[in-house]
Design goal:
The structure holds two protein chains of two kinds.
Chain A lengths: L4 E2 L10 H12 L10 H21 L6 E4 L2 H15 L5 E5 L4 H12 L3 E5 L9 H7 L4 E5 L13 H11 L2 E5 L18 E5 L10 E5 L14 H4 L7 H39 L3 E3 L10 E6 L4 H10 L2 E2 L1 E2 L12 H5 L4 H4 L2 E5 L6 H21 L4
Parallel strand pairs in A: 1-11, 3-4, 3-5, 5-6, 6-7
Antiparallel strand pairs in A: 2-8, 7-8, 9-10, 10-13, 12-13
Helix pairs in contact in A: 1-8, 2-8, 3-4, 5-6, 8-12, 9-12
Chain B lengths: L5 H8 L12 E7 L4 E9 L5 E9 L2 H14 L4 H5 L3 H7 L8 H18 L6 H5 L2 E3 L4 E2 H11 L4 H8 L9 H17 L12 H22 L2 E9 L2 E8 L7 H16 L5 E4 L3
Helix pairs in contact in B: 1-2, 2-5, 4-5, 5-8, 7-9, 10-11
The chains are: A alpha/beta, B alpha+beta.
Bound molecules: FE2/S2 (inorganic) cluster.
Amino acid sequence: MNKVIYMDNNATTRVAPQVIREMLPVLETWYGNPSSMHGFGGAVGKRLDQARKQVADLLQADPGEIVFTSGGTESDNTAILAALASQPHKRHIVTTRVEHPAVLSLVKDLEERGYTVTWLGVDRKGHLNPDAVRKAVRKDTAIVSVMAANNETGVLFPIDKIAAITREKDVLLHTDAVQIMGKLPFSVQDIPVDFLSLSSHKIHGPKGVGALYVRKGVRFKPFIIGGHQEHGRRAGTENIPGIVGLGKACQLAARHLDEETIRVGKLRDRLEEGLLSSIDHSQLNGDQNNRLPNTTSIAFEFVEGEAILLLMNELGICASSGSACTSGSLEPSHVLRAMGIPFTYAHGSIRFSLSRYTTDQEVDTVIRELPPIIARLRELSPFC
Amino acid sequence: MWDYTDKVKEHFLHPKNAGAMEDADAVGEVGSLACGDALKLYLKVDENERIVEASFQTFGCASAIASSSALTELIKGKTLEEAKAISNKDIADFLGGLPRQKMHCSVMGREALDAAIDNYKGISRPKEELEGEILCHCFGVTEEKIRQAIMENNLTTVEDVTSFTKAGGGCGECLEDIGELLDKVRAEMKKRPPVEKQPAGLSNVQRMQLVMKTLEDEIRPSLKQDGGNIELVDIIAKKVLVRLQGTCSHCPASKATLKGFVEAKLREQVEPDIQVEEVVS
Ligand code: FES
């Protein structure tokens, strides 16, 4: 394959070289178990502590509030199940229709098992109205789970306003912050959520590791049982190399936050304008202003997403499509559907998600190469 | 991400016979923008009802485009009668296979062909009347179409039905109905095993499966009525070794049963030169 132009950073990211450098010693030399009594294991425990602090710093949290997990999915599952387990008399859940499957599928499953769920919708621009949360919360609401930013459109949710509501009503709030981390600042001091999920491989860390923030004082029940690790909040010998990598990735993320918002945002805007202006019958999915700086979801009418992806792939350009065609289900993504994007557009939706490694030249290449691809497919299409 | 064969990729990247045909004798159109894929097939037919030219326009994923290209290649030079015999499986086979979730692309090709042939013959079919009730509203899939897909491709799960017809891939509200229909059609198929004569040599596995199926569905039930039973011991080339049990084993007529009934049935259902032998333990 020719050189890869990677614009699928909401799916996963390149591991930062500094992160790899940080991880190597714990793979090669410091392989001890932090739970051991000897100093060799203890030395590893120091690295674990350091990583915990690095993650906490990114969130302005206390290190004691960080629980390491196997990733965003486990963090999401843990938060929701912990909230239910610690308040067995409360059997109502509030969430949105556009969550990541880690929340969506779990809550659907809980609904089948007898919990009551209020599913909040979004408007055409992908916005969630915080008043809807206020209306939905009841006496027996165990938890409100709302993502901070949507993975497909990048649209931001008003977590600050929602947190004010859940505080006032004394209901637990979980946010899936996997996509916002490292792209925009998020402080648990300013936004008092009770649980927050984050994932390492979305912020240039290794895969298979993540963290769950649990606000001090919130009652908690572990999801994975069988050991005292993480102060009894998550059993199993710690994934030390992963955790060390996540820690470093968080430190770098904090350092790059400004650049990520400004430089990447400009690149994204240029890409978006370049494509929308040169390709007819194309439109932006979601709100143009209120979203992550690195994400754009563009719909091309009369063509199908997978075909676009495959032709881009021939040129080494990686993005993702707004339809779940490849996963066997043929409906357009649940997010675009919830927004009421017409099927005719949704089927041809492509998401480009940039990172701090994206270059000007890469953006130029995509702006140059995509219009002929769309034209070629439209030539084949019976609707043009 | 894509487990497409090279042939699929080839036909997607360089489709054969793409584009509209100005002076087509027949046009067949299926699918829609809303469904996520659509195919318009154009045919030029000579006075002997032979397809001399075929072209297509397709909106859809890579395998939909490749399937359309394959279809036009398959039907060129064939008479309408011959073309009619082409199944969605033939299209998929031509491409070296399609991922299971993409089989509906080949089904779409077959349907477009049907539509074009009807169009040529001047049959404009009132959809509902011909195809029955719509079962999946998201994709406008009729009961009849699902029934056909189940039988032709021997589908066994609801997921399969979605892969082949798209029905159920949307809101999912029709999934229960699909399940019911699937059970019904499978029950019917069991009663009436397709008289699939496969003259051109069965593979060992195919033979074995067919022998077991025939034993299970046809032979054992009627032996059991007489208080007997039959056990399959082995299959060596075309020799089927069995053991008769129950009343059959010491019935003086067992030889006749073996040759006259068991062997005859297997010859009829599996292969004309099957031999049945009894193993005496
Ligand atoms: S009715 Fe069949 S998927 Fe919606």
